[in-house]
UniProtKB/TrEMBL annotation:
It comes from the Bacteria. Residues 1-17 form the signal peptide. This is N-acetylmuramoyl-L-alanine amidase. SUPFAM superfamilies: Zn-dependent exopeptidases. It holds the Pfam family Amidase_3. Keywords: Hydrolase, Signal. PANTHER family: N-ACETYLMURAMOYL-L-ALANINE AMIDASE (PTHR30404), N-ACETYLMURAMOYL-L-ALANINE AMIDASE AMIC (PTHR30404:SF0). The lineage of its organism: Bacteria, Thermotogati, Deinococcota, Deinococci, Thermales.
């Protein structure tokens, strides 16, 4: 707070009988002028407001009257006058100015301070500085697979569907002021081009995706397409954890690269999930992840009307490094004759994108934004 005008009057210079002083400062940036009277302890005083005049009667004498002009937006002039009690200070307020109730502060030893604030008229007050905008939430959207890894193939290719949905989610969220980071925005994986071995590429790719959950991010959503040996349809959402369900375990192994690599990475993800049981912060994060999964699944089912296959925990490697709410969404089955064809349609993918985005927005509105450390 900067004082735009400040004047100190030594009462002795005005022939007051006792040592004391008065000063004022106009704080235009906050819309008021403050008057401070520092007086010896025991000095009698009284204040009275009558229209645009504020009288301050003090038990100190003054020999001659004097008129002072602060020259600010709240007070037109100040007069010092002798009175029967000692002295009277008159504050003549400008039209629309308002004097607040006086209050007393402790002063130096043997003294106290009488304070009167006069609010400037509304038109004369400086507009308060705008409040800083909070940083936008940052959401990481991970379109599964890409490049040499097509993912599951049926009536559609998984890598094509996941990227298309991710781009649609990004557009929806950015329109709501959410910052979106895509792990990929084209048909490629995240492994170096020099690496030719598929398993090695898959490991490097998943590591890069998993590490993108770190940093100044709030939520992580990985998008995938399901498949099954027997006809199956519907949407299911996963968060990191262990599982005893053979089908879920097989799905995790497949999404983690399949074969020996998939089994190896699944074991690593299981170890991470087990370690989280002893970590209170990680436990809280898993609870938020489960809630994010619930929110997204509810919104997806509401928009598509497809089968609700539930929320489950599973050792997906892409979720193992997450210190923020993180889920993996299986948006449908590529090899189901009806659902596979739906996944090929732009209007159905738009419904899926809207459902995922709505679940994310619901989660951010329910407090995960703050909980994630933004």
């Amino acid at each position: 707070m900067r004082a735009l005008a400040s004047l100190v009057l030594l009462l002795s210079a005005l022939a007051w009988a006792s040592p004391g002083w008065m000063r004022w400062a106009a704080h235009d940036d906050e819309g008021f002028t403050r008057f401070v009277f520092e007086l010896p302890v025991g000095t009698a005083y009284a204040t009275e407001r009558s229209g645009a005049l504020v009288r301050v009667t003090l038990g100190l004498s003054v020999k001659a009257p004097e008129t002072l002009r602060p020259g600010d937006a709240a007070v037109e002039r100040v007069e010092l006058q002798p009175s029967a009690e000692g002295a009277e200070v008159r504050l003549y307020l400008r039209p629309g100015a308002t004097a607040k109730k006086p209050f007393v502060l402790e002063g130096p030893e043997g003294r106290f301070r009488l304070v009167i604030d006069v609010l400037q008229p509304e038109a004369g007050r400086a507009a308060p500085p705008p409040k800083p905008k909070p940083p936008a939430p940052v959401v990481v959207i991970d379109p599964g697979h890409g490049g040499p890894d097509p993912g599951t193939v049926g009536y559609v290719k998984e890598k094509v569907v996941t990227l298309d949905i991710a781009l649609r989610v990004k557009k929806i969220l950015e329109a709501r002021g959410i910052e979106v980071v895509l792990t990929r925005d084209g048909d490629y994986d995240l492994a170096p081009k020099s690496v030719k071995d598929f398993d090695e590429r898959k490991l490097l790719d998943l590591n890069q995706r998993a590490k993108m959950t770190n940093g100044n991010r709030n939520l992580f959503v990985s998008i995938h397409v399901n498949s099954a040996e027997r006809p199956a349809r519907g949407i299911e959402v996963y968060y990191l954890g262990k599982t005893l369900d053979p089908r879920t375990l097989a799905l995790a192994i497949a999404e983690n690269g399949g074969g020996e690599l998939g089994e190896k990475l699944t074991q690593k993800a299981e170890s991470t999930a087990e370690a989280a049981l002893a970590d209170l912060i990680a436990q809280g994060n898993l609870q938020f992840s489960a809630r994010l999964a619930d929110d997204i699944l509810e919104q997806l089912i509401a928009r598509t009307g497809t089968k609700n296959r539930g929320v489950h925990s599973a050792p997906f490697y892409v979720l193992r490094y997450a210190r923020i709410p993180a889920v993996l969404v299986e948006v449908g089955f590529a090899n189901h004759p009806t659902e596979g064809r739906l996944l090929a349609r732009a209007d159905y993918r738009q419904k899926l994108a809207e459902g995922i985005a709505a679940g994310i927005l619901e989660m951010l509105g329910n407090g995960a934004y703050a909980a994630a450390g933004r």
